Amino acid sequence: MTESVTAGQTSAGPTEWANLPDIAEQLGVSISKVHQMIRDGQLLAVRRDGVRLVPAELVANDIALKHLPGILTLLRDAGYNDEEAIKWLYEPDESLGGNAAKALGGDWAREVKRRAQALGF
């Protein structure tokens, strides 16, 4: 990624953000494809200072990117908006090795999915 943006966050949140052109370059797709991925729920983007940004950690790892659409669907089905989904993904949880976003990129991805499913009940 050529550039990431650091935004001030509370304790539960990404430490690095990437803008959409950087995401397109990293994934090797057009910017319109990135917009489509956001609309289709494959990526999560929020506005910070008027710019749409994606948590950099969610696209830095192919495993996390693979599991992200399913997690986002589960969170949206449980009534979470994008800001709430980010808060949930980055809520400190030592049982997952730090937080759910970090766990998505490793062996704990299924546990993250299980926990997201439980939110709907």
Automatic annotation (TrEMBL):
Residues 66-120 form the Rv2175c C-terminal domain. It comes from the Bacteria. GO terms for molecular function: DNA binding. InterPro entries: Rv2175c_C, Rv2175c_wHTH. Transmembrane segments: none annotated. Residues 16-58 form the DNA-binding protein Rv2175c wHTH domain. This is Transcriptional regulator. It comes from Winogradskya consettensis.
